[in-house]
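[audit] Reproducing an earlier prediction to check determinism. Same input, same settings, fresh worker. If the tokens differ from the archived copy the diff job will pick it up downstream; this log only records the rerun itself.
[audit] input (322 residues):
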Amino acid sequence: MSDTPQVTLDDVRDAAARIEGVAHRTPVLRSRTLDDLVGAEVLVKCENLQRIGAFKFRGAYNAASRLSPEQLARGIAAYSSGNHSQAVALAARQLGTTAVILMPEDTPRSKVEATLGYGAEVVTYDRYTGDRVAIGEALAADRGLALIPPYEHPHVIAGQGTAALELIEEAGDLDALVVPVGGGGLIAGSATAAKGLLPGIRVIGVEPEGGDDTKRSLEAGRRISVPVPSTIADGQAADIPGELTFSINRRLVDEIAVVTDDEIRDAMRLAFERMKTVVEPSGATPLAALLSGRISPVPARIGVIVSGGNISAERFAQILGS
């Protein structure tokens, strides 16, 4: 991995300048109830209030805005379980081009409809039998499109890191940063920003139970593949870390916590009832790790990135009622 391109704090700062005025600078929320339950001061970066409802717009726009006029004229392709698809679709629309998105057949309908609503074409595949990278690359090549992957791209990673950059700029010193982990792009960018600004910070990732491919990979010192996870946290259903994201995370991430679906439900309920904010399952995993005691010892001052809130009312009620 020594030849793998890396991402720097300067890259994240450059991305922040590029997305300024296009992406939202999302709020940082506090809750006395949350602080009391965790036993720490918790500052929550609400990327559920980002454009398209998730942090993914940051990286998608940073990458798409760097394409040449010729590439933009031909269009953009992407593959995603949901949030990246919407992010690329919106970025394409903002830049005056088109997008074709490869999505799993079992993606929540609300995310498919949102992607279509931003003007993209959607092509589906079976996530349990198909290789989305191979299918996506073939689709892009056949149509002559520029492919923006959901995390295996330095400009995408740098863009995602702007969430942590903003959080630290507003919150100041933090003892720890807790971040959801799917393919690893958000935590790779966030760790780059956080460790660049606060070298002593503890960076903690959170994965759903059964989808702990990054935890296993970091423990083994190499990328480990797991069966496609069955979890309510569909945005974290990755089966193996990306090569680029893993090369960054093995240097900068201190630990990975794992949470159950029931713990995710409890965190979603607390965010809704006490913080008055809607969080999708993947976005709730950092809160779940803190509330369930999965992180020990508990740092005194903790930054949390809630990665998204893209969930329909019906699905939200179904999950909390199950």
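[audit] rerun output stored. Observation attached for the diff report: The first strand starts at residue 28 and ends at 29.
[audit] end
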